[in-house]
Structures are given as structure tokens and as C-alpha cells.
Write a structure and sequence with these properties.
histone deacetylase activity; His_deacetylse_dom; HDACs; eight-stranded parallel β-sheet; alpha/beta; 8 strands; Ureohydrolase_dom_sf; about 400 residues; globular; Arginase, Chain A
Length: about 400
Amino acid sequence: MGEGNGPACGPTSVVFDRTLADYDFGPNHPMSPLRVDLTMRLATDLGVVADGGAGALRVVPAPVAPDDLIATVHTPAFIEAVQKAGRTPGAYDATYGLGSDDNPVFPDMHRAAAHVTGATVEAVRQVWSGESVHAANITGGLHHAMPGNASGFCVYNDVAVGIRWLLDHGAERVAYVDVDVHHGDGVERIFWDDPRVLTISLHETGQMLFPGTGFPQDLGGPEARGSAVNVALPPGTADAGWLRAFHAVVPPLLRDFGPQVLVTQHGCDSHINDPLAHLMLTVDGQRAAYLALHDLAHELTDGRWVATGGGGYALVDVVPRAWTHLLAIVSGRPLDPRTETPGDWREHVRTALQRTPPYRLTDGRNPAWRPWEEGMNPDVWLDRAIHATRTEVFPLHGLDPWP
């Protein structure tokens, strides 16, 4: 399918309302809701998100997840601690990961985090019910949150709650692919010993980057060996190397697993301009990954695909363009990378933010990559990393790890 994609074979949606931006750690925190606002403005101005119109994503209201739904993943004590912290100034309990530089307390943080969680569960429900073939929640993807504590800018793990909802409503095999620059540790840990969930994370190696986990030998619990897959990429990995790693690992494992639903996390902090990490992808390489995941959903899950956001801290130059491409692909109508950003959007960036906006949706790169089947080079760190993952995981799935 790829560049030749026609419209998705069915309705598509984005779960969103403006108050999702209430998930806000404050003006000095890297994860500013500005990135969401700029994305939705850009996607709307380009006709990707609209009220009606051919090819436009339908906007679905975002519910607030009730406590009992959040409690399918998180402990009651942690939920209570989040509620108390957001209600009473200075009342946070640091043992729950609250009040740190990463996870500062803010008013009504329970409701804000529950809103993001409810939006992801609604996206999942849209897809599982057949109301949408694909659905997105770009405010979601809070993949570091653990059952009993906040971590890495993430209070509640909306993705894990969404996957748990699927399992509780009859799904037997759910695949989760995480392309954020940071290891998707929370989702992996929550389903560590559940063979119904395959988690695959491609990330900068934990030797160099938070959370310091996600190595090839991390394979899942005793009841689910091979259900956790980690590709620990060297710093400096760019489009060609990242896509080489993706295609060497993700498609064969997904095809073997045979998921009924594909859930993906699209942190765009793998970009060369992101201030918090050390990979070197471009928007063009990220777009190529989104297209590949879309095609795999149509190949393997009858199109049932739920896409979430995640990290991304180049708030103006990268996130809006990357996630507008993602939303366009979710809609079934990818945008030409050479598309110019609309004048009204550029003027908003200039006047409201006093920033110079990007002019096109492309970084001007051709994200070509060399297939793994052409052979590996043991002198190259990237190839050793890919081979390490294939050597650990592939035999557990009856697959040959060698090219």
C-alpha cells in the first residue's frame, strides 16, 4: 500500500477536545500542551481534521475515564494519591513518583490524566466496535506510568488501560508497537507475563537514555517468553538505520503473532532536533514508519489500528508536522511531504509564539533503507543491535534470526 494508499476502507476518527490540554505540568516543563494545540491547528488547516468532508478525520469527544476503569491497571492507593495531590497543594507523596521534576503536581491532575486515559479507551472502543477502522489520540501514549507510580511525564498509562479494555472485551491477541525514543517500559511491565499482548519497543539504548531499560534479553515473564521485544538503538541512528531495524524486526514478529488489533505509540522525540535524546531521524523517516504501521494493520488486523502520541519536545519545528502526517495516514489520505504549511498557521506561530515556523511538511530527506536480508555487518553497532534482538526473540517464535 504505502504511498499509493487510497482512503481507509471505513470511517476514521480522532478523539479530541481542547480541554485535553489540561494535562499540563507547567510552563517550564518539556511536555507542553502547546505541541497538541499546534498539531490540531495544522491538521485542521490542512483539512486532515474537519467536521465533515471527504477524507477528513471525524472528531469524537473525549470522555473522562472513571476510577474503576483506571483501576484495571493502576492500584487504588496510587489513584488515591494522585487525587489527593491534585486537590491539596503540597499533599503529594513522593513514593508514588509525584512531585519530582519529571512529574510535578498540578491542580486537578487526576482528572486531566483520567481524561487522556478516557480518550485512548474511546479510540480503542471505536476500533473494536467497528465504528472506526482507525482511531487516534495524540494526547495519549503515556507509556512510562507503572501500576503504582508515575514516571517520565506519565501519570496514568492510558495505552495499557486501553489494551486491558480490549482484553476484557474479548480480544485474544493485541500487538503494541512503540516508536518513541524512550523505552516503552510501563506498557511492557504491565503485560510482562501476558502472552495475549506482544509489546515491541524501538528506542535509544538504555545505556544512554531514560529509563535505562529495554534490552534484547528482556523477553517477558515465564508464561509469555518472547512477548516482550526490545530493539536498543545506538545514539546517532538516523532514518536509514532506524527503518532498517524496524523492518528487520517488526513485520516478521507481527505476522507470526497474528494480532486482532494493532496499538501504536508515536513519540516523535527520535527526531534529530529533539532536545532530550540522541537519535537523528527526520520527519520524513518518521512518516515512513507511520505508513509501514498503517500497512501492517491492513495486512494483519483488517485495518483495526489505534494510534497514540507520546514524547516529542521540539514543540514547533517537529511535533506538529510529524503528528499531522500521522493523523493524515490514520485518515487514509497521506499528505505529500512537500506540502506547504498553511499561511494562517505560520502567522499564528509568528505572532503568538514569536517563533519562525517550518515552511513545509518535509525535512527534505529520502528515507531509504537497506533491507536486513542483504546481510549484516558485525562491525556496525546498529547491525549488532538488530542481530541481538533477532537472536534473542526470533527462535522463541520459530523464526530464523539470520538474514
